[in-house]
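FAQ
Q: What does a multi-component entry look like?
A: The components come first, one per line:
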Amino acid sequence: MVEEIKEGDYVLLYLDDRRSYMVKVESGKVFHTHKGFINVGDLIGKSFGAHLRSSMGTEFIALKPSIRDQIFKTTRGTQILYPKDVALIILFGNIMPGSRVVEAGTGTGALTMALASYVKPSGRVYSYEIRSEFLGIARKNLERAGVMDYVELKNKDITQGIDETNVDAVVLDMATPWLIVSHAYKALKGSGAFISFSPTIDQSVKTVEELKANNFVNIETIECLVRRIRAEKGKTRPETLMIGHTGYITFARKTIIE
Amino acid sequence: MVEEIKEGDYVLLYLDDRRSYMVKVESGKVFHTHKGFINVGDLIGKSFGAHLRSSMGTEFIALKPSIRDQIFKTTRGTQILYPKDVALIILFGNIMPGSRVVEAGTGTGALTMALASYVKPSGRVYSYEIRSEFLGIARKNLERAGVMDYVELKNKDITQGIDETNVDAVVLDMATPWLIVSHAYKALKGSGAFISFSPTIDQSVKTVEELKANNFVNIETIECLVRRIRAEKGKTRPETLMIGHTGYITFARKTIIE
Amino acid sequence: MVEEIKEGDYVLLYLDDRRSYMVKVESGKVFHTHKGFINVGDLIGKSFGAHLRSSMGTEFIALKPSIRDQIFKTTRGTQILYPKDVALIILFGNIMPGSRVVEAGTGTGALTMALASYVKPSGRVYSYEIRSEFLGIARKNLERAGVMDYVELKNKDITQGIDETNVDAVVLDMATPWLIVSHAYKALKGSGAFISFSPTIDQSVKTVEELKANNFVNIETIECLVRRIRAEKGKTRPETLMIGHTGYITFARKTIIE
Amino acid sequence: MVEEIKEGDYVLLYLDDRRSYMVKVESGKVFHTHKGFINVGDLIGKSFGAHLRSSMGTEFIALKPSIRDQIFKTTRGTQILYPKDVALIILFGNIMPGSRVVEAGTGTGALTMALASYVKPSGRVYSYEIRSEFLGIARKNLERAGVMDYVELKNKDITQGIDETNVDAVVLDMATPWLIVSHAYKALKGSGAFISFSPTIDQSVKTVEELKANNFVNIETIECLVRRIRAEKGKTRPETLMIGHTGYITFARKTIIE
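Then the predicted structure of the entire assembly, as tokens:
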């Protein structure tokens, strides 16, 4: 049973490793690229992974968008958090199907989307964003990714407190994470995970100090470097340019003083 | 509603960032450490995250084991694959709740356990292992982690073929991944993910060559370096020693030639 | 006694960390930049390090060109070897004042220039280059750097053999270093250093195999990553982009079988 | 003309990449290892690089100690500064034959030894050390390396000022480098190099702030990671463990305000 492309699905029109386009499939729709146009409607009924040709004869492939594709497309223009960081936040933060997670700030919803994809179907993401202008953008991105059912978007200032209790994780991607530590302590269940992503080391240091003062243990700050390798027989070498820094991630777990 | 520790649960008795012990909670059980003994049964009815003292007065914390803890405890002694690699395999491989995943080889079940934790409740991991002596160990580890229901352990040689079809991902952690590429092509759905972890660059190069010859695209090989930072006001610095290499991960996606 | 800028000296007109210009000082000379023109002749008699203003009022600083500046300016357009690699080649290769060094290939002379700067005044660099069109460029760069007296440029194919004997080091930056290993053995004194820089790992592996077969010991292959940090109070972080790869460097020492 | 080992020379008795011993050659001397004893006196008249056998038949090689070997042997037990850092300090700091360099603190003399090896024969290192107990150790190490003639050891507190003027570089490996910035400005010639090595980022940030306030330009802070590769046909991979951090190096150049 092959998974067929349907009206309304999103596809990633893949040209090469540098160029791909996320497009909604609609009958009769024409998508224009610098390599000619593509009759997107013709994809209906084909399999994901199908090859197709533009009007100029260039080959594209209709991939099914992955979480990583969606992170890249969602953060276009404001990108700070990379898929590598999202991956570590989720696994090191023990965020799983069924987890209840508080997040701030929502931004364009890239991290929200990834979190929602992993807590579904029974978990939930409570996402705080003080800047109301972002919530519409985030909602649109979450709907496109098909995970809006697992998210509660909240137009609230998380520095004023967290409504939820007994949550599995609190994930922060915001300028002043140290202000949220005591709120996070109240919101988390025992042994629950505090996770914070920050571009500067100064933010991490302030956050770690607060965590130490608030009954968290197993506090650690890491950075993650991903290096792409050109694996080719007889001329294998890492790529010349790499991303040298996105941010530091701090993890900690709540302890209970009875 | 605080999550209470019950008879039969596993706890991570956390002493410090270097020393922690995974213990099953049973009434009357005594656990011996070099810091004195601990009456593990006393934990029943307490909250995860609770502090407790050994007979010598040393403080331990009863954390709830995370996936990362379980990976570390499961791989003890044979460790190759690290949590950082598992995190990238899952997110970059688009493995999610509901995914059907073929894996080889099972080994002690560390990767199987992580995969199962993320495909549950509706997904499934089909795990191939030719060495029958490992299957008992893996089953025990998977049962301890509570994910055996989502796994099918198969005592089969994956180089002879894959039984499943239309799967979302094929994940390989074995010596000769290039021998599995054509089998993986048949097993995968269109746009599905091929993922292979290898300690040496030679294995990656051979695998990439096979992928290029078998209608896969978006082929990339990466390595991931995680660096721990001592974030401490006035004396912040990365740790002196780090893991400089675990392995290379190769990702690719199946295309359909109609 | 301040070091004054003289007619004929080179200065580095430094605008900021991204933009600087290497200029020869001549009386009456005008140098044009996108920030206005500079009367370069006015620098005569001033101290290195002096501030000066362009016709548009932009401040430049007349730095004395360092070896690193000269490497950057010399390799413009063909850059493979970076100052970080040159630094390790020299120190790990034990190349010092007085050393006699064989080098191939000369190219534009960037590495030759650095080697000559460190073996002077009593040492010497014998630099082999098969492509005669490069020798003129290299000579000009070496003369500009003031080190031509310590270099012998040789328009010869080093794969055919090395004329010199009893040298302290053989340094290779060429496509097929493994072909030179037996020649290097003959040219080197006992305990002397073999050093080879290669962009691909395949070249390094072939070279290491040859070294093992030719009575070299202490063979090691390394790569060097330099990361720039934005050290700024309250917002310290590594730079986003970094050079992820230039090449691998292999070192070895000759042993004597008597 | 082969370089012969003479009475009084030092040799590096090399067993493998992990084990080597620096020994002074004296006639009749016996050196004991866990692989049996070696008649060191027998080396007199042999070539550097010669193979020899211990009483138990194990093969050693009598290498000529390199600067890198000497750094390793000198820092044994107090090692902070690694050869990779020394290499960058020297090349990026434009320290060359003929340079006059101020250094603090001397410590065991590892960096002093390397600096002296590169400024010789006409340059000089002025090395400040407030702790008098270190000066004897440093002198012994510098004499062993044969570079004491190029060094002036000064039992002085560099935070009180620098005696020398018009120097090419000031190199600091001490706890409070920011206190030396204004002294370094006075001591340096125009365009001269300030270089400071610090284990923590906090030290680097303070130093950079002082440099900005004291007419230095081209200020940069870097860290250097060296990764060892096991280059072996069919099983090439980086080493599992690596040094993840030694320190940050800050470079700057003095400008002249006339």
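Q: Is there any commentary attached?
A: Sometimes. For this entry: The CA atoms of residues 137 and 152 of chain A lie 14 Å apart.
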